[in-house]
Design brief:
Helix content is about 40%, strand content about 15%. By secondary structure, it is an alpha/beta fold. The protein has a single domain, classed as Alpha/Beta hydrolase fold, catalytic domain (Rossmann fold), CATH 3.40.50.1820.
Length: about 300
């Protein structure tokens, strides 16, 4: 395995890094992933997994506080931003193996995993498929697939999930999301900006630039398409997650209803839930200080 190709590439538009952070590349599970890392080598490893349509930058407020105690790594997931964009490997088993390979690449036997949205879907599945690798989980607004499968056809969740149905259509979502210089993505991120205390117009443009990289949009949509094609049975029935798990949930999430928390203790042996009634889907951007406080307290 190739481990690290440090030295940030001079061929891409640089985004500002958190204090004390560096960026580099790691090859794992046959794919080259870009990452941003901070914290002293040898400390316990924490992986930060972003969602759609994001990249490592969504964790910028959490990296520095965590780096005071941990070795923190925030990768661009397969296909996103500066990570490699292969033609396949967007199934959960492959994405889980990407995470497992990152733990090995950074010289750790186990890791804490903090994850949001699609990163959280991966984290749920990873913790069940590779039970010896995650030490603790923190999940931000990401459904356990067993509960999502239960809820997805219920009217209260179905209308929230219609966008993912649209994403199954070939080529048309790419066209609509990228037309007029990615106007739809700007609408999305400007809406997030209105409820996020520290998000700027420059941040909005950084998200657009990351998703506008060649192949990134189709790769991001491939997560949805592959999951639907292979079905929602990502976790084997009865396979409980043993890693202590903290779920942080913004209750004003327009895409994921609070009913996705009902019955979660059946699937997680050691579960803690913290609800945010006045926050939505983008919890790490809306309530960065609260998220940092909760994560640090839980990871100890």
């Amino acid at each position: 395995m190739d481990i690290h190709d440090l030295a940030a590439s001079a061929t891409h538009e640089a985004f500002p890094l958190p204090p004390g952070a560096e960026e580099g590349y790691a090859t794992t599970n046959g794919v080259r992933l870009h990452y941003v890392a901070a914290g002293e080598l040898g400390r316990p490893l924490v992986l930060l997994l972003h969602g759609f349509p994001e990249f490592w930058y969504s964790w910028r407020h959490l990296i520095a506080p965590l780096a005071e105690r941990f070795r923190v790594v925030a990768p661009d997931l397969r296909g996103y931003n500066l990570s490699e964009k292969p033609g396949g490997g967007y199934d959960l088993a492959s994405l889980d193996a990407d995470v497992a390979g990152l733990i090995t690449a950074f010289g750790a036997e186990r890791a804490d995993v903090v994850a949001h949205d699609w990163g959280g879907v991966i984290a749920w599945d990873f913790a069940a498929r590779w039970p010896d690798l995650p030490r603790r989980l923190v999940i931000l607004n990401a459904p356990h697939l067993a509960l999502y499968r239960r809820e997805v056809w219920h009217p209260r969740q179905l209308r929230r999930s219609l966008y993912s149905v649209y994403f199954q259509v070939p080529w048309l979502p790419e066209w609509t999301l990228s037309r007029h210089d990615y106007a739809s993505l700007r609408v999305l991120w400007n809406a997030v900006r209105r409820v996020s205390p520290e998000m700027t117009a420059e941040d909005v443009e950084r998200y657009v630039v990351a998703m506008a990289r060649p192949g990134a949009l189709s790769a991001a949509l491939a997560y949805y398409r592959t999951l639907t094609r292979r079905g929602l049975g990502g976790l084997a029935p009865g396979r409980r997650i043993e890693a202590p798990t903290l779920v942080l949930w913004g209750e004003r999430d327009p895409a994921l209803g609070i009913h996705l928390l009902d019955g979660l203790d059946r699937w997680v042996a050691d579960l803690h839930i913290r609800r945010f009634p006045d926050a939505g889907h983008w919890l790490a951007l809306q309530r960065p200080d609260d998220v940092a406080r909760e994560v640090l307290a839980f990871l100890g």
